[in-house]
Amino acid sequence: MSEPDEDPDAAxxxxxxxxxxxxxxxxxxxxxxxxxxxxxxxxxxxAHVRLIHGKGKGVLRRTVxxxxxxxxxxxxxGLATDRSGWGATLVELEIGDRCVDGSGDSV
Length: 107
Description:
This protein is α+β, with helices and mostly antiparallel strands. It has helices at 30-43, 59-70, and strands spanning 19-21, 48-52, 74-79, 88-93.
């Protein structure tokens, strides 16, 4: 029995935990996905977010950084300094009084 073809336009459920791997999305979708994900993180009080875009040629990284530069709720962002290096961007969101990290712990 064969598996039905997956709908490439079907919505993908993404956990809102402060880490988003952008390799699962088409490049044309990345900007909107980043905005929607950061909105959800902010709404849930998650201030520290890791966006994984990979190293490659830097196309996704530039797309992500361009979106982050336009958002008024981004306090700071920069490339990760751990082993992922320039394959991930760390984002700090302006949340207001309520602020938690991806684990749900207050920071």
